[in-house]
User: Fold these one by one.
Assistant:
Number 1:
Amino acid sequence: MTGEFEIDGSGFLPLREVVYDALRKAILKEKLKPGERLMENTIALKLGVSRTPVREAIRMLADEGLVVLIPRRGAQVAQISRQELLDVLEIRESLDGLAVVLCCQRITPEQEELLDEAERAFRDSIGKSIAEIAEKDIVFHDAIYTASGNRKLVQILNNLREQMYRFRLEYLKQIRDFDEVADEHGKITAAIHAKDIQAAVSCIREHIEKQIETIGRTLPE
Amino acid sequence: MTGEFEIDGSGFLPLREVVYDALRKAILKEKLKPGERLMENTIALKLGVSRTPVREAIRMLADEGLVVLIPRRGAQVAQISRQELLDVLEIRESLDGLAVVLCCQRITPEQEELLDEAERAFRDSIGKSIAEIAEKDIVFHDAIYTASGNRKLVQILNNLREQMYRFRLEYLKQIRDFDEVADEHGKITAAIHAKDIQAAVSCIREHIEKQIETIGRTLPE
DNA sequence: GATCTGTATTTTGTATACAATTATTATATT
DNA sequence: AATATAATAATTGTATACAAAATACAGATC
């Protein structure tokens, strides 16, 4: 092993990743609006790449649920309905429940520390930007997911979160009292430390149900 | 609207679908063994198509979890470990539970009939080929999933089933008494008809837990 | 005037060609 | 003989070209 220059490092992402990021951001920021068609050629020209990586990026987005593919007709930005969002939350309530159960049974001391850290970080983020609060919230929940010791579960829950992403900022803006959310996080954390499965499950379910309520108010069909 | 002839119907599948089916079957039948590399060129030549549809098919299989993608090094048949399988079953136990809860709350009379039909069909399949039993089992569980009224849930559960597919036949061969399985299906069905959520959930969880046990015995790490 | 049909255009599906990276082999050096 | 290095081959990533299908539009027919 000679010099090991990090030639690549942060630098060379595959083009498909670059295109993916660009499209994803555009969709999340609603620069590409739901229902809008994504034409390979147009996007390729706009980004200065060929159609191939664009195609692959679009398919990645389709897996994530951000775009829908119509055979022989291309792709368009997914029109996520209120119903779909509620469906996702219904599943999250169940799987977040599973996650805390497993978490109580399997969490390691190091993971308990990470969880505490994440909980504090969320509390500290209150008052800062919505984006920052959102990020810390993700970290907190991710700490629980990871501590469940079930990799597939982590993957599914992350995917479900991604599908809600577009509405997340909107949703967070609706929340009046973030301290209340932080308290919920605190209760969940405490229950996990105490290995109190019952308490942990009911706390997390309540946590999600509040989200369902808020969504219900925010997005009237 | 004139005649509505189903001209297409069975006919023209996109090549990527053809390749996908071919590879999928090969993996499930273990003609392509876990760990084996999938080289685009080789497959393309073998199937008489170009690399483009092969690439897309491989990526579809990656979504399904049947192959893993290694950047700049191609794909290989996924090596599903005992742990992964148990992880999947852990999630299924939770989500099948959610499915029957929702099913009790939302099932329509027509769906109740379909459920009964599926339950009978499974019972009738006992003694026939393992493949047939497997198929009827899928139909039964699918009837429950569909009746949950949560599309995303149906999609996730189908995906989880697909990930177990390779082990399914092996697993079914282990089962001594299919009548017992049929009885479990019967209890679940009855609980759903009675809208007895508690009974339905405990029946389905027990049903899955038996699978976990069997897998535990079948695949010793 | 409405509808059908044929043509032109756009767009996706597929094939192929080229570039960049990784794996392999052979050679040289110690 | 073992290791390092250089040359070569194999393989993925990307671009481009061509084919087939879908769409849009214009003109013809009733």
Note: The beta strands of chain B are 37-38, 67-70, 74-77.
Number 2:
Amino acid sequence: MFEHKTISLSDQVFERLEDEILWGNYQRGDTLTEMKLVTDLGVSRTPIRDALHRLEQERLIEITPRGILVLGVTGKDLADIYAIRIRIEGLAAREAAKYITDDQLAELKETLELQEFYVGKQNPDGIKIMDSQFHSLICQFSGSAILYDTIIPLHKKIQRYRRAAVSVNERAQESVQEHRAIYEALVKRDSDEAEHYMVEHVRKARDYTLQQEDWL
Amino acid sequence: MFEHKTISLSDQVFERLEDEILWGNYQRGDTLTEMKLVTDLGVSRTPIRDALHRLEQERLIEITPRGILVLGVTGKDLADIYAIRIRIEGLAAREAAKYITDDQLAELKETLELQEFYVGKQNPDGIKIMDSQFHSLICQFSGSAILYDTIIPLHKKIQRYRRAAVSVNERAQESVQEHRAIYEALVKRDSDEAEHYMVEHVRKARDYTLQQEDWL
DNA sequence: CACGGTATAATTGTATACATAAATACGATT
DNA sequence: AATCGTATTTATGTATACAATTATACCGTG
């Protein structure tokens, strides 16, 4: 069994529409129809319907007999997501510290150094990608598929605001330093310290993000 | 706009298959095909494919070019889910305590009393349903859609084990008492107490559940 | 008898035709 | 002029036909 999994049109449409919504190109209250997406995206209704039903399951849209309503992410969602992240993302760091391998540490180090590089270049897109990857890797290395599936969707939903945060050079520098502290704790395989620095990191990210009132 | 949302075949197939997997009728490693489901369920491929893609998104199955692999819930998942619940379900109780209305308290009370009734009757199915509803209501009353969407899928994945737990009369009685403590705290609108009792409740449920080794 | 290639079958992915339901627009009627 | 009923339009839900890929079985050949 070779089992090579190709990227289906459904998946492509799903990711594209998810992005459009999460980056605000489609806003809360906008309405869509399948036929409009057919002409816009150039694929048939089948993969589009697949994608839409998955987006509905993530509560990003609502499908009604008369059209598709964009829900997106609200300001309340943003606050709620940080409240949850503060409570569980430390767990991911804690578990990762227990089981992380040298190879995984090397991968994390490279991501961290790339992030530092982009901070130096003041490249928000680069920073944001490496920031996401850093957190994503730690979730992976936690060894818990459930934890990964719980945290990553939350990250994705607020990527727009995290992108905005690291556009401010001060915050970008703080953020990467906090990442380094987490990384160093992981090198020492110190669970308590890894958890502590992760929680503090998320807390600071929340404080910074929620105080920018004009983002919603 | 009447917007009456009928229950589509896709939804019915989704819930049915989700149930079959979560209750162990389809086990990890089992393989399915769309055509088998077509003949078994008596609907066309379209709603079945919709349902399968949503199940894949929940990581309950894996769809490959040669068939469908059932993943289900592992023992590791069970432990991971409790670790997460211990960290965030108290938050749901805390938030609910802030905003809960008298009507919502009445609804919660009725659920609680029904659960007590079923415990008296030693009716595990009844207990399990009311137990689930109690937790679900508190998530609703927290006012956070994100929190609801984060916790409820975790509940669903371990419903089989929670059902088993409340089949033991001792645990069923403890459990309903713990629920009552949470309810009383909510009546007082005491956030700290509500959170405390919820965390303790989940912790005890975990201890009881994970010690039954023969469940996986 | 072993091995390789080709044909076949079985599977999911995709497109499209048809069914169904509801909102809207239009016309007739009072 | 207002209102009720009906026809039409528009939307998603469903079924089915077709495409593409790949594992498998079979047959021929060395």
Note: The interface with chain A takes residues 1, 3-6, 10, 46, 49-50, 53-54, 57, 59, 64-66, 76-77, 80-81, 83-84, 87-88, 91, 144-147, 149-150, 154, 157 of chain B (CB under 8 Å).
